[in-house]
Amino acid sequence: MQRTDFGGMACSIARTLDVIGEPWSPLVLRDVWAGFTRFEQIQAHLGISRKVLTERLNHLVERGVLERRPYDRRPRYEYVLTEKGIQLLDVLMAMATWGDTWLAGEAGPPVLYRHHACGEISTADLRCAHCGESMHAGDVELLQGPGAAV
């Protein structure tokens, strides 16, 4: 079955889904962020098939989210986040905040986030880039942008 191409849509959410909309992709990015940078490490941690992991890594490299770097003389590579990939982690942090709020249950969140700047445990919080105030879906109006399909 052929996957729908969301990359050509005039929608930033659809274009982002084109990069990380397949369920394994965010988990691969999470693992690389957590320090699992080699194929064997990622595969063992996720329990993903070699074929699917190869496809996901190739896709994320092609999209410029991960970079493949050799780590020995054999053709073996480790994967590192690019600037584009590091910024994409903010999306994953927002997803984790939602999951911690609505799905963690009595056990609580499986991961805590210590903020480097203040040393406190915190969660992701959307803020307006202009004024710094909290910015959530109910706080904004959707307007047509310059890249909108007319």
Shape, principal axes of CA atoms:
globular
Strand order of the largest sheet: 1-2
Largest sheet: 2 strands, antiparallel
Which percent bin holds the helix content? 40-55%
State Rg: 18 Å
> What is the averaged pLDDT score?
93
Number of helices: 5
Order of helices and strands: HHHHEEHEE
Determine the N-to-C terminus distance.
31 Å
Question: Care to count the β-strands?
Answer: 4
How large is the share of residues in beta strands? 5-15%
Low-confidence stretches: none
**Class derived from helix and strand content:** mainly alpha
Question: How is this fold's topology laid out?
Answer:
Elements: H1 12-20, H2 24-33, H3 39-46, H4 50-62, E1 66-70, E2 77-81, H5 83-102, E3 113-114, E4 121-122
Antiparallel strand pairs: 1-2, 3-4
Helix pairs in contact: 2-5
Brief descriptors of the model:
single chain; 150 residues; mainly alpha; two-stranded antiparallel sheet; 5 helices; 4 strands; 9% strand; globular
Q: Concise description?
A:
This protein is mainly alpha-helical. It has helices spanning 12-20, 24-33, 39-46, 50-62, 83-102, and strands at 66-70, 77-81, 113-114, 121-122.
Structure description:
This protein has 150 residues and is mainly alpha-helical. The chain has helices at residues 12-20, 24-33, 39-46, 50-62, 83-102, and strands at residues 66-70, 77-81, 113-114, 121-122. The chain contains five helices and four strands, in the order ααααββαββ. The strands form two sheets. It has a two-stranded antiparallel ribbon.
